[in-house]
Amino acid sequence: MKGKVFLVGAGPGDLGLITVKGLELLRSADVVVYDALIDPKILKECQNAEMIDAGKRGGDHTMTQSETNAKLVELAKDGKRVVRLKGGDPFMFGRGAEEAAELRKEGIEVQVGPGVSSSIAVPELAGIPLTHRDNASMVTIVTGHERSDREKERTEWKKMASMGGTIVILMGIGNSKHISEELMSGGLPGGTPAAVITNGSTDRQRTEVTILSSLHSTIASKGLEAPGIIVIGDVVKQREILGDMF
Known about the structure:
By secondary structure, this protein is an alpha/beta fold. The chain folds into 2 domains: about 5-115, Tetrapyrrole methylase, N-terminal domain (Cobalt-precorrin-4 Transmethylase, domain 1), CATH 3.40.1010.10; about 120-240, Methyltransferase, Cobalt-precorrin-4 Transmethylase, Domain 2 (2-Layer Sandwich), CATH 3.30.950.10. It is about 30% helix and about 25% strand. The protein contains 9 helices and 12 strands. The protein has helices at about 20-25, 40-45, 65-75, 95-105, 120-125, 155-160, 175-185, 215-220, 240, and strands spanning about 5-10, 30-35, 50-55, 55, 60, 80-85, 110-115, 140-145, 165-170, 195-200, 205-210, 230. A 5-stranded parallel β-sheet has the order 3-2-6-1-7, sandwiched between helices. Strands 8-9-12-10-11 form a 5-stranded mixed β-sheet, sandwiched between helices. Strands 4-5 form a two-stranded antiparallel ribbon. Helix 3 (about 65-75) crosses helix 4.
C-alpha cells in the first residue's frame, strides 16, 4: 500500500507562524523530511516521527535535490505518511512543485499545506508593509540566487527597475553588488530606500536601512549574512513610523 506525502510550509521561522494545519500534519507524520533553517521548536512537534535532514546550507547539501526526490518516493512506496517540511511556503522558491511533480509521476498521492512566506512576513515584522497607499501599489518577489547550471541569468533586473512598486529579494545577500548595479543601470535611483532583514521572525532578527547605491557596502560593513531578505522601495520609509512589529 502506497503512503502519502504532504508538502508543508513551516513559515519564516517562529513556531507561532506555522499554520494549525501544518502542526496537525507534523503531529500525525510517520516520517518528516525537513529543510535547513527550520526552528528546532517546530521539529519537536513531530512526536515519534522518523526525522530526515534534507537541508541545503549554501554549498553544503545534506542531500541533493534528486536524492530528496528519490527518498520521498521511496518512503511513500513503503506506505509511510510523509511530511516534507520546508521553510516559508513550499512553492515560493522552495522547489515544492518539482517534488510534487516527481511524486505524481510515480503515482503517489501528494497534498500541499501552504505556509506563511518569509517574503511577506519578515518585512512586516520589521515594520515595512510591502504595499501602502502613499508608497506602492504593487510588489515584485524575486530570487537573488538562480540555478548554477543556467547559462544566462533569467532575472531581468534592468527591466525590473522601471516597473515601480516594491521589490523583495530572497537569497540575494551574496549577490547584492550585482543586483544593485543592475537595478541602477536600469534607471532605479541610487537613493531609493532599501532594507536588509536577517534571521527574520527569530529572536536574532536584525534590520539595517540604507539606500540602493549603498546596499552592498552596508551588507559588508555591518557583517550581514544569510538568511536574509532585501526590500527595495519607498515602503521602507514606513519603518521610521512603525518600527519593529514583533
